[in-house]
From TrEMBL:
InterPro entries: NAD(P)-bd_dom_sf, Sc_DH/Rdtase_CS, SDR_fam. This is NAD(P)-dependent oxidoreductase. PANTHER family: ALCOHOL DEHYDROGENASE. Belongs to the short-chain dehydrogenases/reductases (SDR) family. The keyword Oxidoreductase applies. The lineage of its organism: Bacteria, Pseudomonadati, Pseudomonadota, Gammaproteobacteria, Enterobacterales. Pfam families: adh_short (PF00106). Keywords: Oxidoreductase.
Length: 253
């Protein structure tokens, strides 16, 4: 997407990013902060989140708040407690980017380990549902809130070997569509972004033999993440955006 975000696109906005400790989520947090947002960072590693918060302050951003929170093991009650803590910090949430994700096994369905299958569903689908549900009241208090889920090309067309991950991304697209229909006509917009093959550790686990130098970096795909988070997309809801339109899915070439 050739979107040129104004420097002040996210001024006055309070935005939460999950998976903010690494990969695309980390880059999105740094990018949103550079465009004026105040960040709430969620990830499972406190030390990695602290580094991201430090980078935000080094680049002149507003101080970020961080929550070390394990999306794999958290109970529904813990999501509510997290939302209460956030409600003590802010009266509204202008944006929520669900970037945390788990790849699981690349193996045929016949060989997928049921425990790993459940873990992928927990982090990629159930956590997105529970966190969204807990934070909806704060999102609805913002004037033009944006809720973003992370999809994948294998969440639109099944591909052999992608097992739980593929199925979880279909469910993510479904969650986005159901929510978008429920909030149609309201001020809350709900969309997905499919980043397309991007140079992160998840990608390296999925395609260990590819030449990663041929992949876009998280920084390269930020125009889409800015567009969907900022007010220029306020009339778009129920859309699954491609951060790399036209890219053919599969190994980099
Ligand atoms: P990374 O593996 O680089 O980062 C994943 C992030 O999720 C990390 O911050 C990780 O934390 C966090 N996370 C994982 N498990 C948990 C958990 N149990 N609790 C809290 N946080 C957790 O992935 P990417 O940045 O590549 O992917 C971001 C999103 O984009 C994902 O949803 C992915 O499915 C999707 N995507 C990525 C593509 C790509 O090519 N990179 C292509 C298509 C979709 P920690 O730092 O502790 O590991």
């Amino acid at each position: 997407m050739h979107y040129q975000a104004p420097r002040d696109l996210l001024n006055q906005k309070i935005i939460m990013v999950t998976g903010a400790s690494d990969g695309i989520g980390k880059e999105a947090a740094l990018t949103y902060a550079r465009h004026g947002a105040q960040l709430i960072l969620l990830g499972r590693s406190e030390s990695k989140l602290k580094q991201v918060a430090q980078e935000i302050s080094q680049q002149g951003g507003q101080p970020a708040t961080l929550f070390a929170f394990d999306l794999l093991t958290a109970t529904p009650e813990e999501y509510q407690t997290l939302a209460e803590k956030i409600a003590h910090l802010t009266d509204r949430l202008d944006g929520l980017l669900h970037s945390a994700g788990l790849l699981g096994e690349i193996a045929p369905i016949a060989e997928q380990d049921p425990i790993q299958w459940q873990q992928v569903m927990q982090v990629n689908v159930n956590a997105g549902f529970m966190l969204t549900q807990a934070l909806l009241p704060l999102l609805l208090k913002a004037s033009s809130p944006s809720l973003i889920f992370s999809s994948s090309s294998v969440g639109r067309k099944g591909r052999r070997g992608w097992g739980a991950y593929s199925v979880s991304k279909f469910a993510t697209e479904g969650l986005m569509q159901v929510l978008a229909d429920e909030y149609q006509g309201s001020h809350l917009r709900i969309n997905c972004i499919n980043p397309g093959g991007t140079r992160t550790s998840m990608r390296a686990s999925a395609f260990p033999d590819e030449n990663s130098a041929l992949l876009k970096t998280p920084a390269d795909i930020m125009p889409t993440y800015l567009y969907v988070m900022g007010n220029d997309s306020r009339h778009e809801s129920g859309v699954s955006f491609d951060a790399q339109p036209g890219r053919v899915a599969g190994p980099a070439q």
